[in-house]
Amino acid sequence: MVLGMYVSIMGSIAEFTEAMVNYELDVTLSGPQTLELANAIGRADGVTALQRTVGLPVRVRAWGNEVSMLASGLQPGQTTMRLRDMRGRVISVRPGELWFARHIADKLEVQPGDLLEVEWAYSGRQVEVKTVLRFAGPMDLTFGGYAVGEYHDIRRRLAEQAYGSALYGVHIACPPAVGRELQRRLERDDQVVNVMSMGDLRRQILDSLELTRTFVLIMLGFGALLAGAVLHGISSVGILERLRELATLRSLGFSARATTAIAALEVYLLATVGLLVGSPLGNAMNRAFLKSFESDTMSMRAFLPPWTYAVAAAIVLGLVGWSLRAGVRRLATMDLAQATKARE
């Protein structure tokens, strides 16, 4: 279970650092009139990609259900955010469509192609801003408190009518050194509201994972000790308590190696049955644990790749082999006459 939680959480963090954040700077501009500044940033030396964005808080309704989130507009063909659908393909934003995370789609009970009523979160009697969009499909996201549409479509339908509430910005992809220089220059510009170094944030997250890895290794170590104690009681002690039966096999002509193999085979079969029963239970516990953290903005996937099961099986079978050593040594050196006559 500990290994499963670690893999699931690390997968969610890797999604953020490698897929969602593929840029160095996140710049919030003062408004839609800053087009010239955005163009100037795109022409700066070292800038490899520039993505214009627009976002505003909205309420999305469908089939009597409602979810509040941030509606973001992205340009078609952008490369700074590699958002993917449930099949692992990079999504394609088109006018009139809206994407959001799978767990949000489940909450709204919508399927691709269903109509959505999208309303500005502060819409009221004086200013009513709402539109109807079509659900493009669910995204495979952990951090899913936002919806994604086509940049100009979101801007025209919602952002330009919700004056003062929409956030206009740009994502800048560039080397870290160029990003630091651009950040210093942009922070002095009156048309810039905020500059966030997503590259620094990504690097800080990756550095902090070292402590997480250490914690997980400690937990795995204690888990291995506990499992080793249990397996030792099943394997080594079980063999020592059945010396009379095993000595009888030796007296009937079985070699020491054959007798040891018979005793070890039984223990390995029991361990295999334990793995077959315990692996699904551990997976279910992992899913239940991660589901307890689910919210409108986050839903961690409990997917475990095949190698995690292989590692767990290798640890268990290795501990079985280690636990069998005492019993195997006792079998090799026992006095057959004394062991055969001994009472159980």
Overview of this protein structure:
Helix content is 51%, strand content 20%. The chain has 344 residues and is an alpha+beta fold. It folds into 2 domains: 22-204, no CATH class; 209-341, no CATH class. Strands 2-3-7-4-6-5 form a 6-stranded mixed barrel. The two termini are 39 Å apart.
What does this entry show, briefly?
With 344 residues, the chain is α+β, with helices and mostly antiparallel strands. It has 10 helices and 9 strands. The chain folds into 2 domains: 22-204, no CATH class; 209-341, no CATH class.
Low-confidence stretches: none
Number of domains: 2
- Beta-strand proportion: 15-25%
Main β-sheet: number of strands, strand sense, barrel status?
6 strands, mixed, barrel
Oligomer: single chain
Structural class: alpha+beta
Q: How many helices does DSSP assign?
A: 10
Name the strands of the widest sheet in spatial order. 2-3-7-4-6-5
General shape: elongated
Mean pLDDT: 83
Proportion of residues in helical segments: 40-55%
- Taking all Cα atoms into account, the compactness measure Rg is 30 Å
Provide the succession of SSEs. Answer: HEHEEEHEEEHEHEHHHHH
How far apart, in Å, are the first and last alpha carbons?
A: 39 Å
